[in-house]
Design goal:
Elements lengths: L6 H25 L3 H21 L3 H20 L6 H20 L8 H6 L7 H30 L1 H6 L4 H19 L8 H13 L5 H26 L3 H27 L1
Length: 268
Amino acid sequence: MSYLDDFLVRAALAGIGVALAAGPLGCFVVWRRMAYIGDATAHAAILGVALALALSISVSAGIMVVCLLMATAVSGMSGRGLSGDALLGVMAHGTLAFGLVGVSFLQGNRIDLNSYLFGDILAVSPTDLGVIWGGVLIILGLLWWRWSALLTSTMSEDLAFAAGINPRREQFVLTVALALVVAVAIKVVGALLIAALLIIPAATARALARSPETMAVLAALIGAASALGGLGAAFAFDTPTGPTIVSLAAVFFTVSAMTRLAWGVRGT
């Protein structure tokens, strides 16, 4: 019997894969203060689910297309001074609402909406696992390829221009990566919690790292530990897996913040 026949092994591999992609990408989300943009993109995933089911196409493809359109629209608005919190809130919750309404019309489909909202990592199939890791490798490849340019444009657009780097192009690379990570992570933590998996491990790593590269690696490791620990805790205590993973990540952040605060007080 193949190891991939064990649903816990598939769940663990899916959680590790998503963490490896979400950790480094989440660092740029934190550095660029894109948390709300990530949230808006994740909420749009439900509209992608509804459209994919209505058109009888791959759910992952539907999510990817809608999230990419959403992230591109938000990115374009941010360049024109239109991305206020109110506008982002309207887009985030509006697309979520349209998605939920759209799903309600699909009476011919038996849809477990909770699995898309909060994730269902225990139901990951070998095919899902292939899609997840395929997306993860693409995201990591993009970040590896554009790391220096992304970092430069994140630090300063003027510095990027001086170095011959187009900040708008690097923003688009992040947009594509963000849409892709939402598409592959929805099975693991769901649309409502994807932004948390992007932000919390990166924010935890920020307090511990001394360089951007170290922060990216630590964020990936913290995300993987959260996924594996949350999976084990959910199995042991019979709790929802996606929320348990995010809860453990939040615990790691709290411990890191308290430890840093304690050392700061002791240093004074």
